[in-house]
Amino acid sequence: MNKPSLLHKTVSCLVAGLTLSALWLSLGNSGTIPWLPPVFIFSLVGLSMISSVTYPFIWQYRESKEPTNSIKTSGFIYSIIRYSVAFNLCRFGWIKLFGLQFIVPESIASQPMNQVSGEWLTWFYFGHSFTFGLIVAIIQIGGAYLLVFRKTVLLGSIVLFSFMLNLTLINIFYQMNLGALLQSIILTFGVLFLMLLDFKKLVDFFLKAKSGLPGINWSNNLTKNLVRFSVIILPLLYTIYLKSLMK
């Protein structure tokens, strides 16, 4: 393993600090838990963020004195990210299974749709089907479980990144509360960071590996590329035609 640069150390520690802070805030549950008062939670958040800013330089100094410690430090920082993200996602999965999420008060649910905020509409929509909520919870818990094993962390990251990116876009464009938005953004970046640690494997698998699917023996590349292009253009032309019928 090559020695990580100071930039890599800084990014790693920052992601670790953010994911750990997101976990503290999630456990604090907006100050509703008596034995986890806000002052205690925000102290942990502050300590995590201060450590994330200062530790890269400590790491760099210790590496200059004893280079072999760098690998152990990398493993420790990456473990903080993996376990923080996994713990947080598991928590969100379990609260769905126990019916503590997607709850809409009757006073809100009875209002006309055009008078309800995007956040309440989203919660009402997702809460309409218990089965869908169950599937979402299973993805969160199952994906989190994959993160705690080094052999499956890449698989878990790939599964969770697409899931978390979609969730983050929902939180942005449906105006979810700031806490939920920040949690989803931080968890998405945490999963993305873990995925990019194996960037070479991703390139080899998705871009360089040869497909085992049998192909068509095209007469020339022009015909092949025209057929590929038609997959995009023909549906567009058909949609334009349907649109013209509605005028």
What does this structure look like?
The longest helix is centred in the middle third of the chain and has 29 residues, at 69-97. By secondary structure, this protein is an all-alpha fold. The protein has helices at 6-28, 38-65, 69-97, 106-109, 118-127, 130-147, 153-173, 178-196, 199-208, 221-245. It is flat and about 65 Å long. The chain is built from ten helices and no strands. The termini are far apart. Helix 1 (6-28) packs antiparallel against helix 8 (178-196) and helix 3 packs antiparallel against helix 6 (130-147). The mean pLDDT is 92.
List descriptors:
mainly alpha, 247 residues
* Strand count: 0
Distance between the termini: 63 Å
General form: flat
H/E element order: HHHHHHHHHH
Tally of alpha and pi helices: 10
Uncertain residue ranges: none
Beta-strand percentage range? under 5%
Secondary structure elements and their pairing?
Elements: H1 6-28, H2 38-65, H3 69-97, H4 106-109, H5 118-127, H6 130-147, H7 153-173, H8 178-196, H9 199-208, H10 221-245
Helix pairs in contact: 1-2, 1-3, 1-8, 3-6, 3-8, 6-7, 7-8
